[in-house]
Structures are given as structure tokens and as C-alpha cells.
Amino acid sequence: MTQPETVFRVGTGTGGALLLAGRPLRRLLQSSLTTIGHVAGTRMASLHVVSGDDLVHVSSTGLSPDYVRAMARIPVGVGCCGVAVAEARPVVVEDVPCSRVMSAFQCLCEKHGLRSVWCLPLLAGDNRVLGGLAVYHDRPFRPSLEVAREVEVYADTVAAALEFGLHSVHGHVRPPPFPEGTRRMAAGFIDVQEAERQRVAEELHDELIQDLVGIQLTLACAPGAEADPSLLQAATSLGALVARLRELIFELHPLTLESEGLPGTVDALLARLETQTGIETRFHCHLAGRVPMVCERLAYRVIREGIQNVKRHAAASRLTLDLACRDGHLEVTLADDGVGFDPQLSLSLNHFGLASIRHQVASVGGALETISAPGRGTTLRARIPISLEVETPTAHRPGPP
Fold this sequence. Notes:
This protein folds into three domains: 10-170, Beta-Lactamase, CATH 3.30.450.40; 192-253; 259-392, Histidine kinase-like ATPase, C-terminal domain (Heat Shock Protein 90). Helices cover 46% and strands 20% of the residues. The chain has helices spanning 25-39, 65-70, 79-87, 106-111, 145-167, 180-220, 229-252, 256-259, 261-277, 293-314, 343-348, 352-363; strands spanning 9-10, 44-51, 54-61, 73-75, 91-93, 116-123, 129-137, 280-285, 318-326, 329-336, 367-372, 378-385, 395-396. Strands 4-3-2-7-6-5 form a six-stranded antiparallel β-sheet. A five-stranded mixed β-sheet has the order 8-9-10-12-11. Strand 6 (116-123) and strand 7 (129-137) form a beta hairpin. The protein is globular.
């Protein structure tokens, strides 16, 4: 019995173009595949790009090396991914042994324990097909509409970053201005990213940290612990590790951002900076009240990236941070008295963190500038529109078979 392939009609526009660009492309794609696999309930995913009449493998996760080698180059129009790319539509093969589309790969899939495959085309801003994303399961699988929506969000972002990487391979490309609809979509991507950070932070706090604290207490209270320096040292080391994990959780997703707002979170961030480095900080807040949460989240990312650069590169003794609302924008300004740098040289050396933040700010209609010179400190200034509306891609329910 032959089983028809299911088609999900899900929007794949330009979405959050450049949101994730600015990092090394291969590392970005690898981490994106891991996240997509987690959302889809699997560890197996792969990415192919169009090269002439073929699809060429560029990244994968969870798949055996033999399978990856066998699928290193496949013709467009053959197999689930080939059909998805040829027809520019997502395709789900719920059960590979019953699928005509996967007939050429049934033995290969059986050998490597792959029972179902779900493929999505990756579309450029002008609707050119750049490649295909494949998600695999070891059992018959059909994604729910909720999972389809979420994976499509990530796939759309991967396509945008892939397009940017392909265009900028020979040098830096200044991001173009974004239309209003794309700005709303970009704001939606920021919310999706923040939800994923929150999920990871909660898992670390509720599971890993609790386990480590339990082990620490067990070691500290073990019989003879007071007379055994090695047990006490192990308990102390675990305590330091737990403290570091709490720091990372705060940086990943500070809970105070929702409860206390941006000023309270910035206060805590600067206090940690002073404690860790001895850098003197000054904070001037001119906000009369809260701004939209998506603005606060993006501003926090700008501030965190700026502080990380001060810690790692500036050799500064003082950092001043200003928050204000002017002309419909949230303005963030960080100024340090450190060693400074040549912005053009920094650009050529690919300082990816700052470039990524710059693209995120630009994608919602804002701007980020860096003012610096060797020996004259650095000023980082961002302007984020406070009238942002959030729009997330939606999926259309498939029609009747």
C-alpha cells in the first residue's frame, strides 16, 4: 500500500533576515539543526544547498557518517528533500517503507534506522530555493500543526542567514532597510529566541543545578568529611560551579526582565560586572515607565554584548550606561574609557557577536553604531523603535486528502 505524502502549506517569506547572520555560518547552521531537532522531538536533521541540478550536504546532526556520505550529493527532484526543493513545498513522509517518494532510499534508511523524514524548502527573499532542511525520526511520524509552525519559524531564519552568508562570502554586506511587515516578523523571531532561552534556563535551574546542589550537600555531609580534605574540596568546587551556572542562567534569561523591567535588570548586570572585574559603573536611567517587552529584550541583548566586549577587550576602568526614550525610540548608550579599537579593522576581523546584534537591531527598524579609536575608549549606541508589533509565521491547516 502506497501512502501519500502530506504537504503543509506554511509561509516561508523573508522572515527575520539576517537575525542570526554574523556568526560563522557553519557553526550557526549546526546549532540551528540541533535546536530544530529538539523542537521536532528528534536528534536527527540535515541541511542541503542547491548546486546546479543537485543538492549538496552542508551540515547535519545525529546522523551516522555512512548515511551522510551516501547523501552527500542527491539530484533535485529525487527523494523527500529533492521533491521539497523541486516543488518549493514542505513534504512529510510519515513511513519511509510505504513511500514512493523515498523508494530510491528505502534500503539506506532501513540500514540506518530512519523510519520517517520531513523536508522543508529554504527560500530566499525573492522566493528562490536555496536548499532543503530534513528532519528524521526512527518511528513513523507526522508533525502536529504546532510543531510545524515552530520548526518553520526556525527554518525561515536559517534560510535568511544562509542567504546572507552566500551573498556576503566575499566581504561585508550592509543590511538593507526592512519593510514594516518584515520588522514585525523579526520582532516575532526575537520572541521565539527568547522563549527558547527561557526553556533552556529553566531546565538548567530546575534539573542540573538541583542535582549538583544535592551532590554538594551529600559530599559535605558525608561521614568523615570534616577530616577528609578531598571531600571538602570537591564540595567547594561544586559550590563554585553552581554559582557560575547561576550567573550563566541570569545572562541567558534574566527573570527580573519580566518582573522588574529593564532598569532593574541592568542594575543587577552592572553590579555583577563591578564584583567580577572591579570596573566602576555609572547608570543613568531616564525612562518614565515600561516599554514593550520585545524592546526591553533586544536592549538587554545589546547591553549584555557591550558589557561582554568591555570585559574581554576594553581594559577599561569605568563604564557609563544611559537609557532614554527619544523620538519614539529606546536609546541605549554604553561608553567606556578603555583602549578602544579601529572599527574598520574590527569589521575585517569578523567580530561576530557585535555584528549579529547589529543585524538584529536593524531587522526591527533600529540602528546600532560603534564609535571608537585606539586609545580613546568605545561608545556603543543603539536606537530601537518602541512601536514594535510582533508577528509570528502561522501555518495553514492542510486540506482534506
